[in-house]
């Protein structure tokens, strides 16, 4: 199966527009979002939903940090 090409331009535009290209700013907001999940009412999400959402946010954070590190190394 050939992977479908994904247009990431909207995501890149978001980074540029909302975070002025500062990926670490975005990572800090992801950290805050993950932290806030701990203060939601227990019945707002099931334990599995909470775990899955935090996992997705952590994976996104790791991917952004990897991009950031690659930018530093290539500079």
Describe the structure in your own words.
The model has no long low-confidence stretch (mean pLDDT 88). Helices cover 72% and strands 0% of the residues. It is globular, with a radius of gyration of 15 Å. The protein has helices at residues 9-19, 23-37, 47-74. Helix 2 (23-37) packs antiparallel against helix 3 (47-74). It has one domain (11-74). The chain is mainly α. It is built from three helices and no strands.
What topology emerges from the helices and strands here?
Elements: H1 9-19, H2 23-37, H3 47-74
Describe this structure in a few short sentences:
The protein has 75 residues and is mainly α. It has helices at 9-19, 23-37, 47-74.
Number of domains: 1
Mean pLDDT: 88
Query: Count of DSSP helices?
Result: 3
Strand percent estimate: under 5%
* Helix/strand structural class: mainly alpha
The helix-strand sequence is HHH
User: What's the main sheet like?
Assistant: none
Envelope shape: globular
Helix content: over 70%
**First CA to last CA: what distance?**
35 Å
DSSP strand tally: 0
Regarding quaternary structure, how should these chains be classified? single chain
Poorly predicted parts: none
Radius of gyration: 15 Å
What key phrases describe this protein's structure?
mainly alpha, 3 helices, 75 residues
